[in-house]
Design goal:
alpha/beta, Spore Coat Polysaccharide Biosynthesis Protein SpsA, Chain A, two-stranded antiparallel sheet, 10 strands, about 35% helix, about 15% strand
């Protein structure tokens, strides 16, 4: 698979974690295509007074980074929150570049992360049944006879991913058909083929318990009968699972523990594999205690 003439820009979202951001940037600088790639950074403003010093430190660090074709930093004086920042920022970049590679400030990338992402965005650009490409692959139990380097799953990933303008424009950020979905178990079961956690997340999103762009992006993928592309071996590792991130309230070292450099065979005609999707679904099964909590506290 050859690289496209125009590489996708890297869109990076950050808030108040300068140490995490520095690791993310340093890993990107080691990428083979860093010097040929445009880097666009969205720096969110403080949520509370204690954020101000950290954001000042982070923005001071951003003034001195090098190693990319161009670097653009967009600073917000007020706090927009991650969901609004991603939705508005990705929309802005896609309108200009038509495709983008998206990261948050807690992602370590393999040296060939940008190569893989650009090749995959090129390979699947004409596939309307594919809405996104992920560099993170959860450690699912694949069938022993599955030999491909990639697979399709009915879910979008928020950890090192990419998409195209003509897919992003189809997103329903308001989740307009939510009431119909609550009454249709067949469709809900189809929606949760990408994981048991998806429906509770969507319910909490609509009740304003959480504010997630990712669950709405997955919902939009579902509406369009589309898939995300995942690698068998990750090109990304999350370092924000120490409780410091916006959407992590517990600590774990398990997420994204595996990350491998190495050529990925990109099959442009890849099709869904039911066994793989079943394994993918099983990985995102909810613990019984969380199911009980959702039922009692949120009536889900």
């Amino acid at each position: 698979m050859s690289l496209p003439a125009n590489l996708a820009p890297i869109v990076l979202f950050c808030f108040n974690r300068p140490a995490h951001l520095a690791q993310t940037i340093e890993a990107l600088q080691q990428n083979e295509l860093a010097a040929e790639s445009d880097l666009i950074i969205y720096s969110d403003g403080p949520k509370k007074q204690s954020d101000e010093a950290l954001i000042e430190e982070l923005r001071s660090y951003l003034k001195n980074i090098q190693g990319f074709k161009t670097i653009k930093v967009i600073k917000s004086e007020r706090n927009n929150g991650l969901a609004a920042s991603v939705i508005n920022g990705v929309t802005e970049v896609l309108k200009e570049f038509k495709k983008a590679i998206v990261l948050e400030d807690d992602m370590l990338s393999a040296p060939d992360f940008l190569t893989f992402m650009n090749e995959a965005l090129e390979a699947y650009e004409s596939r309307n049944d594919i809405f996104s490409v992920s560099a993170y692959g959860p450690p699912i139990s694949l069938p022993v006879n599955y030999k491909k380097d990639l697979y399709l799953a009915p879910r979008a990933s928020s950890w090192g991913w990419g998409t195209w303008l003509n897919r992003w424009e189809k997103a329903d950020w308001e989740v307009n058909a939510f009431s119909e979905l609550t009454k249709n178990k067949i469709e809900r079961d189809k929606f949760t083929s990408g994981g048991e956690d998806l429906w509770p997340m969507l319910v909490k999103q609509q009740r304003k318990v959480i504010d997630s762009w990712a669950i709405r992006w997955t919902y939009s993928q579902f509406l369009n009968n589309a898939f995300g592309v995942y690698p068998v071996h990750s090109k990304i590792r999350n370092i924000g699972t120490d409780g410091s991130g916006t959407n992590f309230t517990f600590k774990t070292g398990y997420y994204g523990s595996e990350m491998l450099a190495g050529k990925i065979d990109i099959d442009p005609n890849i099709q869904p594999d039911n066994e793989v999707i079943a394994s993918f679904h099983d990985y995102y099964k909810l613990p019984l205690t969380l199911k009980i909590k959702n039922r009692i506290k949120y009536r889900i």
